[in-house]
## 1
Amino acid sequence: MISALNDSLTLILAAMTLSFTFLFIYYTEKMQYLVLWSIGWGLSALAIVFYSLSIMVPGMERYEMASLVINYVSSVFIGMGIYHFIYGRLPSTLLLTALIFLTFIPGGIYRSNPELAAMAVVYIFGGTVFLLCGLALIKNVKGIGSKVAGTSFTVWGVILILNLMFRNSSELAAEFIQLNVLLTMVSALGILLMHFEKMRLELAGTTLLLRELTESSKDIVFSIRLKPEPYIDYISRSATKLLGYSPEEILQDKGSLSRMINGERMANLRLISEDRAVKQLQDIAELTAKNGKVMKFDINQTLIYGMDGKPESMIGIARDMTDRELEFNRLALEKSWYELIFKSSNIMTMLVQMQTMTIIESNIALNSFYCFPKEGMRGLHIRELFLSDDDYLDFLASTNEGLPFQCRNKLPDGTQVHVTMHSSMLSYDGKDYTFITVLDNTSENYLAHELSSIKNLHRSILESLNEGVIGINSDGVIFFINNSAAQVLGYETDELLYRCHHETIHYRDESGEIPESGCTILNSLKSGGNIRNKREFLVHKDGGLIPVLLNFSTMRSEENRKRGVLIFRDITEELNSEEMILTSLEENKTLLKELHHRVKNNFQMICSLLALHAEDLPESAEKEFLNESILKILSMALTHELLFETNSFSRLGSKSYLERMISHLQRASNGADDIIVTTDIEDIDLTLDEAVPCALIINELFTNSLKYASPEPEKLKIHISFRQDGEEKVLVLSDNGQGLKDIESFGSKSSYGHLIIKSLTRQLKGNISFENRNGLTVTLRYK
């Protein structure tokens, strides 16, 4: 009896120890299977208490049944815990029901003996659960702990089932209790090993992840040992870029820390190690780079305490503040601009930090709408604006997709408002923010009504146009067509709606079938380009080709989808008229060319008649006058000759025209060998109204130089230039003759040649000047 009591107490103590151990671990690690194991082993201890009372205390035999029931429930909790450990979830209700149902089958076999039936149910159920759990642990979980626990549970399950067969043997019953003590301890050891192996693997994965994140960070991640003398025992590779030191240089030299920080900060680290200094978890520090440059860093740090309760190390992050200081100063200068755009805007806006989901700034319009005081909504968690968690979670999903989100918000007095929230993601200083604009849907409903009215107005305008208008979506399908377009193409509007435009109205032209890859409209739609005033062919319902002048523009809808608008008009009549006009134009060109040719011939005939008449005259003023007149008429004839030769009917190139005319004047003059003529003429387009006056003025001035210059004993030199000077054209004729004796009174003379020059200058709306400069220089300017 005493031995059985000792064995029972040992088993109870072991089970309770396990129960409290799992419960303690649960409070630190929050794993659900630990709670299930704690309850299971606690119930197992309670079952042993009831069983011991039933066999040791007279009159307490009925407690054996209670012990069986508690053992049954204990097996359920232990099995559920192992299932959750392996698969990460609780077993399904169907699985538990099936297992419980199967274990009642042996109970039915012994239904004539209720006590035996209850024992059969409990032992077979518990044995089956332990057996299955043991096999599952051996098969599915790696590690020594799982193999120890799996083997122990498998053996324990077999023994529980066999115990039913040897229940009447007192010697075996004592051995069974001792075996239970052993298996409880072995199972407990295996389960604890299994749990800590799992924690070790998770910790190793977390450590590896943290190490990768640390090495990829742009900021400096560091660890400082405070004892016996502060030194750096870890630093990330970003230190090379920011400070110039490689991690190896810093870690191999324990004095590197004292070179990077000043003496005051080093002394403070020593005081921290002795727990005698104020521990600032965040501050701004100056670090000295390898090149001697002093840089500012924002330090965030955490202390690690030793067994003596004093700090023994420090880990932290150092962020470069050099560029941020400049950015801060720039932002400070732009504060007034920020206030104007953000704070004073009538559009309700706020800025939310994504890490904490708190509002860090809101403008006056938003504060007023949500009935907050002037201080605003800063520090408020954005969840407080939503009626439910579902709305809040849906809003977070919409921010990731960049879509507008409609929902109900609540005001501080409980009033509900319908709003649309638009969000834009942005990053600054290593943190993510979302910029949110809020629209009151009460006013939105009014705007929607107004928008509907505007759409109807636009549809009416499009329907009233004489030009065809077709709307095409990104797949080339027609979603809108006005009456004019349908009439030109020979369709009813309903016949073309929701049909592919390429397959119905733009699949053929004069050269034959147009492949889809060669469709200019589809290509413009895909590329986002436009078509301007292009002549194309559209296909009539009867298969005929319609020449059209089309314009095509692409745009994006509210859903950010491409759409296109095709505007065209039938140009059949225009092409016919154009052909008639071109024919008429060709006829007119021919007539005008013939006219120039005949005018030139008439001038030539007049010159010939005058030349014949001059030959009969003796040398006299009359003959000289006739010769000068002939030269003037030839200048005019030359204009028509060039127009005839160049096929131009209104303009002449100044260079070819003037140089040819000057050459003709030189050849026609007496003593041409004694005259040196030079030119500097730019090629400028001249109209007929310019060409003839310029030619006559040159003719008159050239003739005057021949008559009056007389630079004996030198040869006569005449220089003629024509150029563009800004908006003016400048004609200059100069000679090396004697010049004018009385240049002041020359303008008042009324000689025939002078009158011609003045008249032609007025015709050009220009002005002419005369000056003696190594001879006579005449300058004509006109626009």
## 2
Amino acid sequence: MADMSKLTIREIHSKPAFEKDDDGSVADQHPAWRPGVARDITTGFSTAASALTTGQLVKDEFFTLFEAVGALEIMDPKMDSGHLRSGETLEDDYDVLRELLPEEVIGIMDQLLCFEMAWHAGHPLSQSLFTSLYLDRLLWPEPKMLEEARFDRSKVPKPENKMLHLVLRAYCLSLVKTCDFVHQRISKEHYYEEEDFVSNLYHRNLLTQFDVVEIHHMINEALNYVSKLTNISITLRDALVVRLELRSYFLSAVQFDEIIDDHRVPWWERCLRLIPALPKTTYLGMRVEASFSIKIQRRLASTVPPRPMVNMSFDEAFEQLTKLCQNGKDAYRILDYRGGANLMRFIWAYQSRTPQPSVYIRCLMQAMVFSEMRVLGMMSFKELILDNLREIVMPADVLLDSSNFDVEAPQDPRFHVAKRMDDFMATAADRFLDIFRTLCMNRSRLRRILCHLVLEWDNLQFDAENFDTELRKYSNEAPLKDANSSEDLWAFPLSSWAYYHKLQQMEWIVQMGFELDVYQIDELGGMYWYLQYLISTRIQHLERIRTFTTRRLTRISESTLEEKAAFRRSFSFLDFAILEASATLSFADGLSCLFSFFAHLRLVPAPYHDRPYSTPEFRYNLRMRPFISISLPEVPSYQQFAALISLRMPDKNGTYGSKVKPAQSEINQQASQMLELAEQSLKAARREWEAVSKANAETARCQGCEDWWRTSVKNVMRACINANIVVSTAKKALANAGTGDARDVLKVEMVESAKGYHPWWIVPKISAK
């Protein structure tokens, strides 16, 4: 063996592998490998390695990261998908052409259903459906005609074994085509790869090129065959029929098309009627574990480490299928358009249900809202924005008169009004529609996107002010006089509209922080205070809008029936929005005081107490980062915030720094005052939420989703009642403590948002010791 210590790596690679002889032929310079001859290179390798100093790294420039990772994977069963253990074969020896009992067919169908639901839940096909040897035989090699998608891949169909070649084949083909429709629907809409859904098909075709009519024909043939079987029990026969019919109905329900109407609803309803029969007959099935293999992954993705099959139980799959079909049916309620505010309420209520609808349903919702650049397939984006403007800030306004957009004469003022309104709507359209699209995302992604979207609305608000100033001369608006400063007050309707939506999104960001457990315990009181700060700002803004709307109504000498109806609609929206915001404000204020009470008595950590590697002000600025760049409303400084949410709070160690610790009686007295404030706010919140719950669907803008909205309001009221009970318990315990330490008589236990009555309202458990 040559001394490799005298040969550099560059020289090794620089020597040609082939050289030409004198006659021009190519000769291999590397010695030919001879089978059965092995050489021990240990000594030579050790000698070459001994020339290296300790810690010296030898790196071959031709040995890239890819080869390095590949070298680590080789022969590692956890990383090398091609590694074979002792006695293991490369391919599975399961015979997909063997005779199947009806019980085995039922077992395979149920297992395929479990894998299908696992795919809907976000797992890759390589760990779910594509582990089936039956599906693999159908899809690979890729069939050019549907007749080629067979288990035997024979050109001559075999009449025997129809339980396999007719029943199971029809079920599998329908399953694959269903997955194709689902994949197409999700791929066309906004979603997050590997966060919501894994779209990788591993170079397999899901029968996209074949007409669904052919698939239905095969299912009908299988149903006719099974229904005429006399050599199996009626129970087995009915179980097979139910599964074939459900597969046919499910295929029709998810069929991909561009038609936006409710013609798919009956298919979802039929699925829901059949689903309860599945768990009643699943015991009949015999699991065929050998028909599913992880070895197929070697042909699907050779560069990806092997991953285990997803084991979803039938009960979990049954529950997910039921919710999928129910959500699919309910999604079509959105087609009953009742206004922009009602549409937004519907999507919010629909997506806020627990558990959240699957990614397919969320994409279906997106398709119905945005299909073919039409809202619900019935109106343009421009019409949606105009309708929302009329509902909130500009009822029966001359600037929004539809006749303005028909004027083509440049000398007509209406032409300029229409042009400027078109410019504004072109600016606002993407941002407004992004709200609806964002509401269809998963909950974590929703909050994250809103943090970016609210900045765009802040810019839109100031752009809208310029449009308002330009349009003012066409509306003959007269200003109001400010009683305090004698300054002119203008309506700024477009800017007010943008400001309203911006404030609403800011509230959503804060509220979803509670839902997603973003905040630490010591932050809860402060964030509820900031929430009520935002809501109080929105209430003031709504009252301002109402003032200008009322004034404009009084200036109309003789209003028509249409104008009166438009103003009634706007006042209805504003009045209910103020009531709902007031109820939310009272609840947030009550919880803020309650958590401050607990912190004051050191029952929970003090707000923003000192921690290693950070300061309270630094953490506060990080928490407020989504809002710091927003111009209005301004984020309070940390000093203002700390002064508003706390009394003299103890630090982390329970001391008061350089200040003299007040007497325990003084601490309890201050805490008692804070508890009184919490009690007043929470009682007001309960009254106001009761008033909210009594509103009809039209007033609450929840037509089409009234049951979901009322369930949410009912849960908020339960949380409010629970908070009132906590205050009463705390008052009694504090009275019993007298001048002693309240920690001796009170115990506070925090509750996760998901386990409370409502995820936005975290009410701790309290008990007397």
## 3
Amino acid sequence: MDPTTCLKSLLLAINQYKNNRSVPNASQLQRHIDDVSKVKCGRLLVSGQVLPSECLSGLVELAGDPNTSPALTGTIVTVLAQLASDDESREALHSTYNLTGTLASVIHCNSSTPREPVVLQCLQVLQKLTYSERIPHCTPYMDELITFLIQHIQSPNDDIIIPCLGLLANLCRCSLSVQTHIKALSHVKALYSKLINFLAHSSLTVVVFALSILASLTLNEEVGEKLFHSKNIHQTFQVIFNIIINGDGTLTCRYAVDLLVDLLKNPKIADYLARYVNFSPCLSQVLGLLHGKDPDSAAKVLELLVSLCSVPDLRRLLCCTVVQPPGPRLLAASRREGQRRGADPDPGLALLHWATLPLDGPEACYLQALQLFTELSEEMVIDADLSGSARAFLDLLLPMALGLLRQPDAPQSEAQVKRYCSRTARVMDLLLDILPHATLLSSDEAMKTQVSQQLSADLCVSQVELLLSSSHMTSGFSCPTPSPDLSQVGSEVVLKLLELMSRFKELVHDMETSFYRILQDQRMVTPLSLALASDRREHVQTALRILLEAAPLPDFPAIILGECIAANNAYRHREAELSAETLPTLGRSSVPQTTSQPSPSPKSINHLIEKLQSGVVLQEEVKDMRVSEIMDVYEQKICALASKEGRLQDLLEAKALALSQADRLIAQYRCQRAQAEAEARKLASLLKEAERRKEELHGELSAKILETERAKTDLNQLLQHNSRLQADSQEYQSLKGSYNELLHRCTECDRMLKELQAAHIVLNKQAETLRKQNDNLKVHQERFINQLEEKKEQVEKLDADLRDREREIKGLQQERRQLEEHSRQRDREMEDRGNTIEALRKELSKAEQARKEASIKASSLELQKTQLEAKLEKKEEQLSKHSQMIAMIHSLSSSKLKGEEVNL
């Protein structure tokens, strides 16, 4: 069946059921809802068109109405759960239709029966809707929803505990007002105790939900300091990494990654993680999850890796793990195209796979992968130790990034264009980061040549033309409704492309000419005006840098740029006035109605009630019950009229916005028309000047014809003269050959002469050196002769002294003989004493040997004692660690905590 027909039938059934809530109408509406779910027109329902919006608003209104039958409410919630399957649908249901407040009202109405299927369905849908969304505390029925969740996490049934914990984790994670409300509750300590008990639960999902809630509520408080203390945080890290690596599903892994990302925002915990001893193996296992994972899990792993890059120490470890070890292997593995099945998986190739996914693939994966590549390239340039791996890494990144820009087919739909612009913006960030570093890191010209060959001017120009020529830059890229956000993203990409061209206009061939030609294009007015009026600092700075280069150009449309900026400012001012005039009033009625429409004014309702009480229809004698019924009927009718008035007001605002945008387009058209007329007048004056110039040239042409005839006669004479010159030229060539031979001989002689002169100079220097040495030797010889004469005189004196000494020696010899006789007697006495000393010496050597053996044994025993003491200390440390672990496991697994152990 046609989706439009199904939606029309559904809208008719919704209106019939609102007018008459009978069983046949309810069954008919349920049947049409089933038909719509079978046709699979979920994308159409959240497309923003009028018919699907009316159907979805009616379904949300019926779901929040307590008078709707439970079976029909369950069917509607089932359809809404199917619609909340992707991010865009969840965003539309949350922001446009305020489905969060409606489902909270359904849970509040059925709080007495929490095990009903409709309650579980509402909890599951709310968990999807509130994931990574900031839910304000002023949302209708938020207090009742928080009370319901805190009450039922103490239920013994895991079927309701898990969705309650997951929803409470979502509400606490992003909303400071919800956290403040929960902390102000009187029984918050009991909640903390219950959550701490959940840390010993058998389900990893319950554990990670409890940790997420505790981290959101107590991270910066005394309870959080005790729970995430340095003694316990390493075990918490191990639990989180085990859940991420060995989790029992995508949901558990997703919440574990979010928990670790939130913990990394605390500088103290980030420092603990940097000093975590098992971080490197855990990081390698996390990188291994990129192989063979589904896109959702891979996106969360990439998000975790990008978050790790926010901590400098962790980013360096991640860069070493990805870049340095497999640096040479990355290029070889990419050439072999993944034929290494037996080798370890390469994280670089896995990141490359997710970064080069097609445009229709999972957007979060390739955007996070490109962001991670940008972070790694920055760290690679900062860290000098990784400079050796920079070349191989850049050789891999540069072709990948440029290849992503070479897309053969231009995107058509708004979703494709948005994906294309988002990815191109990330690619441009990567190129702007790695290309300057690539040229700086390369010591030779090979890398610069490779960059200039791969980054061509045609590639940049084609990308700029693709964005400028499409209508999305002004009115939403050929989509039926304008998309200002999409225009902003497209302008951002155009400016980044121009910044890249500006940086490499001198290195790449024809880049400078293309750059200045694009700057003088009138279509550059839109991206420049949007960037100058942007609220992001880097966009304004980029636009100003480009404007400084474009302003001196002769054909730069400065006047049109000023008109466009003025029109944008007027549009913003008008939009601010309309939003201030139509600011919705927040309120909550006792009867749950659809919260996507503005609530009726309480003053008008009270005024109508006073009229009813004082009118002719209702008299004083009518019973109170009858009056209350009539008032309920009129209140419902007034609410319906107020909702219709709100829808009309929304349509009026949309028309006003469209009108203001049309005024802006008309102003741009008038500027372009004025410029076109000025150019037409300029072309007409140029045409007249060309005609006058043509007549002048016609007269000059006749004169040139006469000159040509005279030139022909001169040419014949020149030909004759040329023949004579050719003969002279041949003679000149022969003379030139002989001259070249003589010149070659002369050159050879000059070269030999220079060589001989150089040798002559060297020999002269050597001769001068030898002459100086000879003079020095003569001086030394004379000095030695003088010393020799002095030595002879000294020898004669020594001979005379020697004779005197001989006479003295003879006298001394006689005395020596006498002493020898006396000495013999002493020798005999010494022999006796020597025998005695020898005997004592032997005994002393034996005692010394015994002493050495005893000393060796004592040293060996001391060494054994030291070793035994070291082993004993290790055993005592191990025993203390085991006792601490046993105490912690006992505290986590115990069902009740003693008051003196955990003091909240």
## 4
Amino acid sequence: GGAFTYNRTNNTDVTPFCPSQTIGTTCVVPNILTYAQSVFPGANIPSTTPGPVTSQIIGPAPTASNFTGGDGLNTLGYRFLRGSNQERNQYSTRVDVDFDDRNTLTGIYNYNKEVNLRPDVDTSNFGTTPDVIQFSDNRQFTMAYRRVFSNNFINDFRGGIFTSVVPFDRTDALPDFILQSGLVTSPMTFLDQGRNTKAFNFQSNADWVLGDHTFRFGGQTQIFRVNAYNDAAILPVVNLLTGTNSTFASLPGGVNTTQLGTANSLLGLLGGLYNTVNQSFNQASIDEGFVRGATALTPFRYENHSVYIADRWSAAKGLTLNLGVRYELFPAMRLNNGLALEPKFADNDNVIPDLLNPNGTYVPIGANAGRKNAYYKTDYNNFAPNLGVAWAPSFEGGPLGWLFGENKTVVRAGYSHIYGNDSIVTSINNAAVGNAGLGRTALALSASNSRLSSGNPPTVGVPANPTFPRSYLVNNGPGIGNFLGTVFAIDPKLQTPKVEQYSFGIQRELFGGMAMEIRYVGSRSTNLGRGIDLGQLDIVNNGVLADFLRAQANMRASNPTNPNLGNPFCATAGCVPLTVFQNGGLPSPGRIVVGGNNGFSSAVFTSVLQNGNPADLVFGPNGNNGIVNQTSTALPTLNNINNQACIGSANTTGGVYTCNPNATPYVSFVPNRGSGVLDLFLNDGRYRYDSLQTEIRKRFSAGLYFQVNYTYSKNLTNAVGTSQQLFEPYLDNNNQALDYQRADFDTTHVFNFNGIYQLPFGQGKKFLNYGGIADKFLGGWEISGLGQWQSGAPITFVDTRGTLNRTGRSARQTPVSNLSNQQIQDLVGVFQASTTNATTGVVTDRLFWINPSILNTNLQAAAGFSLLGTTFANQAFFNVNPGQTGNIGRGLINGPKYFNINMALLKSIRFTETMRVQLRMEAFNVLNNVNFVQNTQFANINATNFGQITTAFGPRELQFAARFEW
């Protein structure tokens, strides 16, 4: 929050306020809102009082403030404590009824409710209790009936329901409209949202023993109902900003830009000035049209049905076979109210031509699937076989007897399929809700310099009911696609992802009650769900890249000593004319205008040339101010970058477009001139996991038990699946192999140990075998512990600039290096180095996970981009040149390893057979080993904290506990 502080005087001189202010005190100035002061001699401005509406915002602002925030002149900071209460209640009960030895009934009921105040959501008001509350009400009821039909046939039937209600509720009264100012964050704009979920599960499982066969068969049905809702922006939002005729001018000798912005914001706030009113509208149904105040509802419906049969067959002595098959059916997910759009496909077997068609259209979901409200067709071909074999060879003598022993070795192998639809709701919803048309923001422009004191803001008109089919172009204009719209599509023949699992292992009994096992375990899939972008930007075939390089060469030729200040349009010796980029003037086919009234920003163009990222020309280096999303909505039409020859606005009441889908772009950047991004969710993800696993176990005997295992593995994938949306576009659609990499969660080495040892002292033990008081002190001691050592997660070196594809698709682009993979891996370790700040001279000791000798004085791994091209001694990584990508692989090294041992010392004192006291001392990280936290998996070579270690896991902790059992 922020408090307002003004010093009030009776003359034209503004005196300092709180001149002796010290840290920890506050400055209180009364009557701050009746102050008026003229900065021009002779100008008399009467004192005024803000209107009642404006006072709703500034009235709650406290008069006490401090210097922890604000600009130190007109606004100051305010710090106070707010409630963040959490209340949790949980209840559980279980009832078991044995009617007789053949019939058993079980009932289980669980209930838990959690209530949280959310100061992180309500960040606006100055009250100590937030006006947003979030709770979770969860209930589970399960019943099971078990029937023993005979001594070789048993059936278990169970069913249950789980419900979860998770609302985020606004607790204060809803206003008629919401005020929004650039200076303060009050009042709160948050409106109710949440979800309620119901899950039903019914299953029946039978066991039938018939001779050497043990059959298991049954089925399961799961039904899911997810209802999400959101009231965001359904109330009018009045923007308390200043119009073009009500702002202070930036005159020579005046305040700086920041202070001028504050002054203009104060003028808009205190004067109650506004220039726009926004309101979002939603449809209650596909036929009803937009309704004022209607909640956005997304009622998802999906199920899972399965039946199975399996046979455990004792085929011969020491040989057991497991054979079975499971059929899985995942009916296509539906949106119960049908309020979503999809591209219309003429051929469900080949949807790409329709996505690339500039005359493409949207229709309500269900048209492609042939089922009302369905996102895709149901996949019926989901048979999951299961095959396993266990062989226990028995040899009494000879080499095989020595190797396998007599009934001491088991050889196991297995193969199976698994079907699953993880993240189905979030991924499908992400691939569908982006097609605008059934929910939108309507914009009403008020007269410039309108004031709230003049009356209520104008009512925003309800948008016209959309008609279908709806063209891509309509979703590609101002306020929706901003001249580079997005088409979201789902493959109508989307399959349920299938995972294959396979293993082979040998288990051998050893001496002393120990057994050792070594096994290979692997899995793979070739049809995981993922979203890709077919609308990759093209900077090669349109001549943009070649002209971009010419422009860079001109900057070098025109200013050899400092190319960053060169002129891309120079005409001096050594310069060449540009054939695509044009310095001012009017647009024409094949040309892109830079600067002037008809071109995009010269500053952005120069910045992109300096940074060497031509693929960011379209969106801009930071996702804005590119060719297609300039502030002026006329610019893309004039330049005709992708085909936005449309007149009109969708953001007015009944707004419509007049569009020409056959217009030819002056310079074509995208494959569909009627849109921009072409997101397609399909079965394009794959992965492969291979591992070697070893394990030694000792069963509990003589007071000792332990288990130790080690895994060496690798997981390769082109779809890491770490986001809920599963949207993972390729860096380059023409070279998809670039995205086949180690998974973000791949762990090469894992070693685990756990064990218990009861010390051999006390009554009944090998040593000090005494009873009575002596046993109370000497006996009952036990030591336990667990240890873990594992290698770190993969780290990828990145240069995320838009050199080949735009920045939004280059998050995993690797840089260039002249070192081999092994040489790069040899740079990794833990290093300490002292660095000196060139400005302050302060010396700082830092830790690095990579040899700091490869860094420059700014602690970066690279310096300068393609235009300046600076290098330094020992440089190992280099920024990618325009139009190219890196030459090293992803996930090339591992982050810091993790090693930890936890131990416990336990003393049990028994008083009777049913009563004892247990004392425990537990040590976490008993060796006090320093484990560094891996603070990133993507090491940007241009970052000034490249390779630095900044945090570590906790040191050793001791914990003492006492427990009484009876």
